[in-house]
Write a structure and sequence with these properties.
two-stranded antiparallel sheet, binds heme C, Cytochrome Bc1 Complex, Chain D, domain 2, mainly alpha, 2 domains, 400 residues
Length: 400
C-alpha cells in the first residue's frame, strides 16, 4: 500500500513537472490573430480618473496608440521562439505580476529577480528594482532584448517581424498615420499601453471621499491601518496614493533583508571610490499587494505574513540600513492620521518595540500579536483593485 502511495505521488510529481515544462508551448487557448473591439477602448478617460496628486505632469493617453500597445504587449512573436510575451510575466489576473519568485522566460530560463506589478508605473521616475532605467519609453524594449526574458539578440529584427504580420497594418495607421513599423513606434505604443494600466478603485481609495473610517473599513482593517500608519514604520516609506515614497517619483531604500547583499541593487547611485550603495532597492508600490506574491526583489517571502514577520522580528543590521528601520532613528508614525476619538482602535493597535533614542544601527523589533498581524494583512488586502484585474481593455486580445 505504502509503495503504491509513494509511486502515485512520484507519478503525479512527474506529470506536474512535465506540464510545467510544456506550458509555454501548449497554447491551444490562444488565437493567431487578435480580436479587437469595433470602437477602441477609452484608455484616456480611465487614466484621467486617477486622483490629481498622482502626478499631473503625465501626458494624456492616446487610445489608438494604447490599442496598438495592447496587442504588442501580448505579442508572443516579439520573443526569439514565439512563445513569450510581456503578458507571460505580467499577468492581468495577478495585477501584472506572475506569482513566481523568478519569472520563467524563454525556454523556461529564470530571471534573477521577481516580476513586479506594473500598475500606475508611469507615475514613477525610475524603473526596475534597481532603478537602472530612467524613462519608460527606453525601458519597455529591454525585456525583448534580454536573453532570459524574450531573447531577441538584435532588437532591430523585431521590425521586419512585426511588419510581416498583417493585423498590425491598420493598427499602426490608426496610431501613427501610416503603416510604417519602427522600433521607436513599437516602444511608444508599449509605453502608452503600460502607462494606461492604472489602479484607483480599491477599497482604501474610498478614503478620499469618506465621512468616517467606519464607513469603509471593518474593525480589523481599521486596526491594521493604525498599525501601518502609526504603530509601525510602514508609512515612512510606503506613502502617498501609490504607497511609494512621496507623492510621485521613486525612492530606493535598504530594508536590511541581508547583512551582506549578493544582489547589490541600485548601484546607479554610486559615486565610484566614494560611496558604494549596497542593498538599496526600489520602494515598490503596495497597490494590489495581496495579488503579487511572492515578495521582495527576489521573491523570498511567500506570504504577507512572512513579510510582516520579517519587518517586526528579522531586519538585519546592515551598515546602510534605512534610518526608518533603526531603533534610535524612527520617530514613530506621529505624522500620519490616527483615528481621532477612536480609543479602542488605538488600544488594539498598541505595540511594544525596542525604539529608543540614540540606538543607531540597531534594527527595530516589534512585538506584534497574532490578532494584530491578522489586522495588518486585512488592511493590506484593502489595496486590491478587483476592477483593474478584470478590466477588458487590459486583457489578452489573443485569448479565445
Ligand atoms: C520573463 C519574464 C518577463 C517578461 C517576458 C517581461 N518582463 Fe517585465 N519584468 C520582469 C522582471 C523579472 C522585472 C524586474 C526586473 C528587475 O528589476 O531587474 C520586470 C520589470 C518590468 C518593469 C519595471 C517595473 C518597475 O517597478 O520598475 C516594467 C515596466 C516591465 N517589466 C514591462 C515589461 C514589458 C513592456 C515587457 C514586454 C516587452 C516585459 N516587461 C516583459 C519580467 C518580465
Ligand atoms: C525604509 C523604507 C521602508 C519601510 C519603513 C517599509 N518598507 Fe516595505 N519595502 C521597502 C523596500 C525598499 C522594499 C523592496 C525591498 C527589496 O526587495 O529588497 C519593500 C518591500 C515591501 C513589500 C513587498 C513588495 C513586493 O512587491 O514584493 C511589502 C509587502 C512591504 N514592503 C510592506 C511593508 C510593511 C507592511 C511595512 C511596515 C511594517 C514596510 N513595508 C516598511 C521599503 C520600506
Amino acid at each position: 500500500m505504502k509503495k503504491l502511495i509513494v509511486a502515485s505521488v512520484i507519478i503525479t510529481c512527474l506529470i506536474i513537472a512535465a506540464c510545467n515544462k510544456i506550458k509555454p508551448q501548449s497554447e491551444s487557448f490562444l488565437n493567431e490573430t487578435p480580436t479587437l473591439p469595433a470602437t477602441v477602448y477609452d484608455y484616456k478617460t480611465r487614466t484621467e480618473q486617477l486622483p490629481t496628486n498622482f502626478n499631473p505632469s503625465v501626458t494624456p493617453i492616446n487610445n489608438d496608440i494604447a490599442t496598438l500597445g495592447r496587442v504588442l504587449f501580448y505579442e508572443r512573436k516579439l520573443s526569439a521562439n514565439n512563445t513569450v510575451s510581456c503578458g507571460t510575466c505580467h499577468q492581468q489576473s495577478k495585477a501584472f505580476a506572475d506569482g513566481l519568485a523568478s519569472s520563467a522566460g524563454l525556454a523556461m530560463g529564470k530571471t534573477p529577480r521577481n516580476s513586479p506589478t506594473i500598475c500606475n508605473i508611469n507615475r514613477q521616475t525610475r524603473f526596475f528594482w534597481d532603478g537602472r532605467e530612467d524613462t519608460l519609453v527606453n525601458m519597455v524594449l529591454k525585456p525583448i532584448g534580454n536573453h532570459i526574458e524574450m531573447g531577441i539578440a538584435d532588437i532591430n529584427t523585431i521590425v521586419p517581424k512585426v511588419q510581416s504580420l498583417d493585423y498590425y497594418k491598420p493598427l499602426f495607421t490608426k496610431a501613427f498615420g501610416d503603416e510604417a513599423v519602427t522600433k521607436t513606434r513599437i516602444a511608444l505604443a508599449l509605453q502608452e499601453f503600460v502607462g494606461s494600466i492604472v489602479s484607483f478603485e480599491s477599497k482604501q481609495d474610498r478614503e478620499s471621499n469618506m465621512i468616517s473610517f467606519a464607513d469603509i473599513y471593518t474593525v480589523d482593517e481599521r486596526v491594521g491601518r493604525q498599525l501601518f500608519m502609526v504603530s509601525l514604520p510602514c508609512a515612512s516609506c510606503h506613502t502617498g496614493d501609490n504607497f511609494v515614497f512621496g507623492w510621485a517619483g521613486t525612492q530606493f531604500q535598504n530594508i536590511g533583508l541581508e547583512e551582506h547583499y549578493t544582489d547589490k541593487g541600485a548601484t546607479f547611485m554610486n559615486s565610484p571610490g566614494q560611496f558604494e550603495m549596497e542593498g538599496f532597492f526600489k520602494v515598490p508600490t503596495l497597490r494590489n499587494i495581496a495579488l503579487t506574491a511572492p515578495y521582495m526583489h527576489d521573491g523570498r517571502f511567500k506570504t504577507l505574513e512572512e513579510v510582516i514577520d520579517f519587518y517586526t522580528q528579522n531586519i538585519q543590521a546592515h551598515p546602510q540600513l534605512s534610518g526608518h528601520l533603526q531603533s534610535g532613528l524612527w520617530g514613530g508614525g506621529i505624522f500620519f492620521p490616527s483615528f481621532p476619538g477612536d480609543p479602542d482602535i488605538e488600544q488594539l493597535a498598541k505595540v511594544e518595540s525596542n525604539a529608543q533614542a540614540g540606538k543607531f544601527g540597531e534594527p527595530l523589533r516589534f512585538a506584534l500579536n497574532a490578532y494584530q498581524k491578522k489586522c495588518l494583512v486585512a488592511y493590506l488586502k484593502t489595496f486590491t483593485d478587483s476592477k483593474m484585474i478584470t478590466e477588458p481593455m487590459y486583457s489578452d486580445p489573443f485569448r479565445k
